[in-house]
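To illustrate the input format used throughout this study, we show a single complete record. The first block contains the structure-token representation of the backbone; no residue identities are included at this stage. The design step must infer an amino acid for every position from geometry alone.
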């Protein structure tokens, strides 16, 4: 295993464990809906979009409406547009690794790659690649295992999805500790809380991201104008 792979593995262990648990619960859920293990395995590998996979699983047992699925997926995963904009500079020199980095970007991979302080002796694009690969594989493997073991496991998995919420809290805390100034992070937190109360849980994330982009853009151009 290369130095980059070992470093990435060290950083992703908490996410890998969370993905294995949550991916397994997704596979079990799909089994309970009546699908064999190939469905959660292939959906995890091809869609790779977390919560929307649970939703699509439920929609598949109803009268399937592709347009509804398309619109719902765009709404739920619209935040990835902002992730992509943020990572344009970091991924600009990743060469042939870029397509997979784009395809495999999820909330957790974005959070980690966006804040990693990669040692100078390591190849940064490869570290980003391995972080994304480990997260991707753990989700797909977990989904496949859950589908295979769904008929054997008799557990109440209600609330297991809180594993990823707890993981995000840990990542957010670590980012706060590593930043020189917590102002922007606290502004983002305040906007998110305000958006949740005003817009509700279904649309608050998209509204929050849009407001943050507008606010930080105004602040950037205001500072740029003041420095001239």
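Output of the design step:
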């Amino acid at each position: 295993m290369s130095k980059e792979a070992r470093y990435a593995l060290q950083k992703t262990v908490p996410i890998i464990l969370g993905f294995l648990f949550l991916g397994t619960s997704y596979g079990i859920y799909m089994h309970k809906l009546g699908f064999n293990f190939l469905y959660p395995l292939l959906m995890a590998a091809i869609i790779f979009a977390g919560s929307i996979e649970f939703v699509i699983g439920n929609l598949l047992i109803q009268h399937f409406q592709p347009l509804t699925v398309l619109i719902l997926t765009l709404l739920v995963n619209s935040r990835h547009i902002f992730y992509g904009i943020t990572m344009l500079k970091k991924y600009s020199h990743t060469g042939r690794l870029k397509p997979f980095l784009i395809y495999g970007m999820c909330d957790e991979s974005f959070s980690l790659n966006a804040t990693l302080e990669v040692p100078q002796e390591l190849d940064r694009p490869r570290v980003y690649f391995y972080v994304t690969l480990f997260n991707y594989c753990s989700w797909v493997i977990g989904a496949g295992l859950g589908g295979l073991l769904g008929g054997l496991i008799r557990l109440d998995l209600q609330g297991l999805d809180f594993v990823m919420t707890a993981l995000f809290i840990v990542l957010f805390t670590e980012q706060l500790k590593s930043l020189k100034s917590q102002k922007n992070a606290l502004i983002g937190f305040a906007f998110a809380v305000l958006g949740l109360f005003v817009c509700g849980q279904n649309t608050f994330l998209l509204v929050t991201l849009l407001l943050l982009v507008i606010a930080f853009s105004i602040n950037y151009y205001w500072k740029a104008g003041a420095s001239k």
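Structural context for interpreting the output: The mean pLDDT is 81. The chain has two domains: 3-178, 179-228.
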